[in-house]
């Protein structure tokens, strides 16, 4: 199985690529829409994992051209900005599935049909709130080039509150073992 990861966040794409490689799935990475279409034309993949926001463009615009290249390609739209409206729009345009970021490897493999769709464990269905908050803060910091005061304004909180939250970096997730 080979795939195409289309995401402007190179770190996320490389991390996901390594995780998929450990499962025997080869992938190529495209950081923008034009690069994605060029790679897909060279070798149409079995699946495409498409980020909704690709810099200034939208991953929604890639669904139809990718589908035209290969009718049976699995197209998964992933986004950190999940909403019912974009989910409906992506499915209307021909996407096979829609996953909110950060999507676990298990949920991606299930959407690709690689893993059995047995009852998911709680860890696979929800990302802990503190992890989501941390990632939201990191996104605000990235958008403000690391400026804590500007990030705090963007998040609607006091600068000192943001600094305290940054000191509480989340650790590894704990699993309930019964």
Question: Which short descriptors sum up this protein?
Answer:
178 residues; alpha/beta; Arc Repressor Mutant, subunit A; two-stranded antiparallel ribbon; 7 strands; 49% helix; 16% strand
- Shape label: elongated
How far apart the termini lie comes to 35 Å
Oligomer description? single chain
- The CATH topology of the largest domain corresponds to Rossmann fold
Order of helices and strands: EHEHEEEHEHEHHHHH
Strand portion, in percent? Answer: 15-25%
Q: Helix amount, in percent? A: 40-55%
Radius of gyration: 18 Å
Which class of the largest domain in CATH terms?
Alpha Beta
Q: What is the total domain count?
A: 2
Number of helices: 9
Could you say which structural class the secondary elements and strand pairing correspond to?
alpha/beta
Strand order of the largest sheet: 2-1-3-6-7
Largest sheet: 5 strands, parallel
């Amino acid at each position: 199985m080979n795939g195409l990861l289309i995401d402007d966040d190179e770190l996320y794409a490389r991390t996901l690529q390594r995780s998929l490689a450990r499962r025997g799935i080869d992938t190529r990475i495209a950081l923008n829409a034009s690069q994605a279409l060029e790679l897909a034309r060279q070798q149409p993949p079995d699946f495409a994992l498409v980020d909704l926001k690709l810099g200034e463009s939208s991953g929604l615009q890639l669904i139809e051209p990718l589908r035209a290249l290969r009718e049976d390609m699995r197209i998964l739209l992933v986004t950190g900005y999940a909403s019912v409206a974009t989910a409906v729009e992506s499915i209307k345009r021909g996407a096979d599935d829609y996953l909110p970021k950060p999507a676990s490897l298990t949920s991606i493999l299930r959407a690709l049909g690689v893993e059995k769709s047995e009852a998911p464990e709680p860890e696979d269905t929800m990302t802990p709130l503190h992890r989501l908050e941390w990632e939201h803060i990191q996104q605000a910091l990235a958008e403000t080039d690391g400026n804590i005061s500007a990030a705090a304004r963007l998040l609607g909180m006091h600068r000192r509150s943001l600094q305290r939250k940054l000191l509480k970096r989340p650790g590894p997730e704990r699993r309930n073992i019964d």
